[in-house]
Amino acid sequence: MIKRVLSRSKHTVKKVPHWLARWVPAFVILYTILGLLSYLTNPFTKYTLVHVPYQTSVNEDGQLTILREGSLRLRTSQFYGIFAQLKSGYHILSNVYGGNKQAKADTLNEIILDIHKLRFDPNEPYLISGDHFSMLYIRSLGIFYHTLLDPRTPLSDEDWLNRQKIYLQTTAYALEVFKDAPALSTTIVPVGENSVAQMNIYSPPSDTLYSLLYALDVMQSSTALENTYPFIASHKYSLQTQEAAQQLLMDYRPSLQYHYLHFIRSVVDEKTGLVKKDILLSGTKDISKRQSAFYDNVMVWKTTQLAQKLQIIPQDQAVLDQLKQRILDTYWKPEIGCFIEDQSTAALANNYYSSDWLIVLKTGFLDPFDPTERQLYQECVKYIQAQGIDSPFGLKYQQEMRGERLHPIVRIGAPEYGSTAIWSNWGMEYIKLLTFLYRTTGDTSYYQRAQQQLDAYTDNIIRYSCYPEVYNDQGQMFQNLFYKSVCQTGWVVTYEQAKALLESIPKPQTL
What we know:
single chain; 511 residues; alpha+beta; Glycosyltransferase; two-stranded antiparallel sheet; 17 helices; globular
């Protein structure tokens, strides 16, 4: 009996398939090589091979001067393009299973200080969100770090200087790479000592040129930033980037003119004057496929406004006014009380909403202090609250998954990331908007909701000892098998601005 059992067990043992035994070692070797090359070409690792091309110093007038310490070489071959994509994916996966990325401190102010020291180090080549995002997302200049040069929120003299330095160096870096590039891209990826490759995350960008122009504008004057987010602080620093920004604008004006014309011709439909419906563009919600999104059209408007302001194209206010009205007429949906996400058949049929409509606040597309435009803001806030999009705190991109609209890799690996997850970037804009609505209407419910939202973020900074990029729909730092939220992201500067704004207003006596 025992012999018969042993005999049967022998026959049930299967050998590893020949093809699997052959390819597993090869895959391990290739993965190891990719990991090594990704590490060495990551500017933010200890033993990186990547050189820092720009540094800055303070001249005798107190202004920052750009010091060029190396060259940048744009690599356009298919090999470098593939390598850029592979190493970007490698960094994302390695972060999921990497070590603890929390700050060492445990109090609110100390955690924020640790993040500043890490993310705004002028010895690094450019700004990043953090962790696995070792490539340069140019939209960071105008979206995620658009408040970095707010003179009312620095932690110290050193912090203010470092913030200006890294922002200036990042702008110079991007402008130099795009100088001879045939088109703009969402990201720039270091692939060697002084070599970089362009990479589009899923689609060409709608917000790269805007972010470059925004950077050149905000470094010359903080007036626009302070007018967009008006509040009085106990202290205010002076910009030291004006002269350097003016020089950059002069040096790169020809390439900016070229890229503006190329951008408009590529994305704008001559018949409708809006973004073409038969192309896909990448914005902050780059994980989703959209046709002529509201966000992208606002980007066209703001890019044109900045191009006029910086004299890259001739001034024409009528063009801006007509485009703005066309966007409002097309995308405002009274039946939901907010803007529709895009012009796709599904969005029109189902009245799809997306929280990146809040781009209208940071771009100044809509003014919360204008009574007519304030009504649009108020209606959108009603919709957000009725749909629970700001619960347990804000702000989710949308209230349902819509997986069919996500790019395949996101749909498989992290479908919540571009749909029901809570994004700190839009959460801060939401808090600022609520604060402005309280100031203009006197309705204390706006103040109360803003304070609740801010308190939730404050608690989470202490809870996680960092400032997470994104949370799941239950309010916990986002993580699954394929993606983990950036922990110590420098986006914390938007939290600091929202906090300063709310604290600048006396608490209502009724609360």
